[in-house]
Automatic annotation (TrEMBL):
Pfam families: Acetyltransf_1 (PF00583). PROSITE patterns: GNAT. It comes from Streptomyces thinghirensis. It comes from the Bacteria. This is GNAT family N-acetyltransferase. InterPro entries: Acyl_CoA_acyltransferase (IPR016181), GNAT_dom (IPR000182). Residues 38-190 form the N-acetyltransferase domain.
Length: 190
């Protein structure tokens, strides 16, 4: 299996990974860290998908998609930290003033997991951030050790996967997700 990771500019493919089965459902659409809280709370049902469609149209794309042939099988959200709520997050520190990019969500479709797609997504997100001029990229994965993680909360990624991609521990955080502490991992792209 060859996985190809591309910028997420095709909305229908993003919808396949992030969209709800029912168009009126209020699912995340990977907006909860991308937009201010007030906007996130105001966007309901189909308005959430419309917002993401606009991101795909206007660019830069809101992340990257992994494809197995023509089938979208994975998603990673990546953007300049300044354009996300991580710019103001009190639980996740800023290591320095470098205009880093954030990688905060890695998702693989059911039926395609355990095939290395999350590793391809991390590498693809790094390549995308680098192509956009990012001097460094950060992630805020779970530091779960050997403990199992509920798949619905594994979207933040796992520390070990980021270490395998060359990220290094840059700081501890006070953020906890699914009972596991999150750590700030960073990869210098300069």
């Amino acid at each position: 299996m060859t996985i190809d990771v591309r910028p997420a500019s095709v909305f229908e493919d993003v919808r396949t990974l992030l969209g709800p089965k029912s168009p009126t459902s209020n699912v995340c659409w990977c907006l909860s860290y991308r937009v201010p809280s007030k906007v996130n709370n105001e966007l309901r049902g189909p308005a959430r998908g419309a917002y993401v469609a606009e991101l795909c149209r206007t660019g830069p794309p809101p992340g990257v998609l992994a494809y197995d042939g023509d089938e979208p099988v994975g998603w990673a959200a990546v953007a300049p930290r300044a354009d996300t709520s991580f710019a103001r997050n009190r639980k996740i520190p800023h290591v320095d003033d470098l205009p880093v990019w954030s990688l905060w969500c890695v998702r693989v479709r059911p039926g395609h997991r355990k095939k290395g797609i999350s590793h391809s997504l991390i590498a693809g997100a790094v390549d995308f951030a680098r192509s956009q001029g990012a001097p460094a990229i950060e992630a805020y994965p779970l530091d779960n050790g050997d403990a199992r993680v509920d798949l619905t909360m594994a979207y933040a990624g796992l520390r070990g996967n980021f270490e395998r991609a060359g990220f290094v521990h840059a700081a501890d955080t006070t953020s906890v997700l699914a009972g596991h502490p999150r750590v700030l991992m960073r990869l210098d792209l300069r």
